[in-house]
Amino acid sequence: QVQLVESGGGLVQAGGSLRLSCAASGSIFSINSMGWYRQAPAKERELVAVISSGASTKYADSVKGRFTISRDNAKNTTYLQMNSLKPEDTAIYYCNADVRRWHFNPAYTRFWGQGTQVTVSS
Question: Which ranges of the chain have pLDDT less than 70?
């Protein structure tokens, strides 16, 4: 099994910053992409950002220019730096990782973190 542990969520005023972390552990041979999704009340879960194993990135239009995704492959960790936060960024943020678990099996499986609450006050 693979576990993803998130940290860094909290309450912040509009215009402030937070940095989310997500560390993967367990049976990991390699990790391809890692990403962040969020889900606000009464809304569908949406993609926030994704980063490939080669460090190419994609962002939702709503966060582009404000959020930065990064990764530390040696630590199997992804980070989401969130700047200029807005009340509409309030959501539960979930990280994920596409994990190859075994040397002998090239399949990748997506694992999810437990989610961390980000609340941005006006």
Answer: none
